[in-house]
Amino acid sequence: MLTYIADNMKQIKIVILLLALVILALLSWLFVIPLFKSSSAFLKVTTKETKSRVLLNGKLVGKTPYLGKKLPIGEFTVKIIGSLNEEEVSFSTPITLWPEAVTSVNYEFGPNSLFSSGDVRSFKEGEGLSINTTPEGAEITLDGEKLGKTPLITAPNKGTHKLRVSHGGYVTRELEINIEPKLLLSLKVWLSATPLENPKVIEEGKINIYDLSTSNESLLKNFSVWSEGAFFFEKETGYIFDILIDRTGNMYYKDKAAADKKVADGKEITIGYLGDQKDIQISEEAAAVITSIKKDFGPQKKAVPKQSVQISSTPTGILNVRSGPGTNYPILEKIKPGEKYELLEEKGDWYKINVSGTEGWISKQYAKKL
After folding, report:
1. Quick one: pLDDT at residue 32?
2. Angle in degrees, CA 208, 212, 216, rounded to 5
């Protein structure tokens, strides 16, 4: 009997020990392991030529260039806030922070979202490479080999690769990516629109006119946004415009006062036409604006106000209009006191006037200049 009780007690102890081990393992899984796993992610954020603040789920974590270490894993929203031309600009995107992996956010601010670009690289469970782009339908080339258009999923070999993302009407972006074993690289790329796709000379000289027409619907839908891009990327494109005119006749200036002064002084100016490549020629509205600029170009000659004379009283009640400045010249017309005539010239004691298309001379003695 005592042996039986001893055996049962031994079994109970074993069960209790096993239960304790299970509970300990569960507690470790729930509380201890996450303490290590939750601080194993990395975040890298860069912004080209723009010092920016970095916020993670609304909390400020640093400034660019930023490298966050031992960050919690999981889904987050990263926001970048910078300053461009004394105006605040921002960009935000969802990201995934994965254990022992670097999530990278690289962004280049433009004057608006259409002319900004960047990429976000993060890892997820799986294998290979997933690529999405804005706009969709971008051509993907990996290590010189065309893979197709986005959205796209592929399975390149592990290691470093050169990636090229291109789209008609947008600036090509080239990246160096790294494929990790047993991880899916999720890549999101934003392309900047090309402000000057294929400029063509319309006129050269004191007034230079370029046709900047495009087929990019994003630009054609908002000429104002397009003009911002054309002015912003002057250094990259090599084209410096004083005035931009869209196909509806609206005008855009980088510096209106400076452009107006150039026109008034007759100094060389450059005009860009924002139109649709489908158009055969520039629109009538734009052509009318260009004609107006040409009309105002250069110092304007001030119109000399016309002078006139009024005929005074004469002994005979009439005044002879002669072909020359003297009484020896033939009489052309006879005019009456009180009448007014355009004064053309003065010579000695005589006025030259216009009488219904006939030019003749009258004595100053019987006329008063008005």
Report:
1. 47
2. 170
Contact indicator for 143, 219 with CB cutoff of 8 Å: no
Q: Which helix (H) or strand (E) is 193 found in, with range?
A: none
User: What is the reported pLDDT for 30?
Assistant: 54
Specify burial of residue 156 (Cβ count, 10 A radius: 0-12, 13-18, 19+): middle
322-326: long-range pairs with CB below 8 Å, 24+: 322/360, 322/361, 322/362, 323/360, 323/361, 324/361, 325/349, 325/350, 325/352, 325/361, 326/350, 326/361
* CATH 2.30.30.40 domain extents, the chain: 307-369
Closest listed residue to residue 154, CA positions, set 142, 144, 164, 165:
142
Separation of alpha carbons 363 and 366, rounded Å = 6
Omega before 135 within 30 of 0, i.e. cis: yes
Number of Cβ atoms within 10 Å of the Cβ of 249: 15
List 185's β-bridge partners, or say none. Answer: 123, 129
Residue type at 227 in one-letter notation: S
Homologous superfamily in CATH for domain 307-369: SH3 Domains (2.30.30.40)
| DSSP codes, 229-257 | HHHHTHHHH----SEEEETTS-EEESSHH
* Pair 170, 191: CB distance under 8 Å: yes
The average pLDDT across 86-113 equals: 92
In the three-class reduction of DSSP (H, G, I as helix; E, B as strand; rest coil), residue 142 is classed as strand
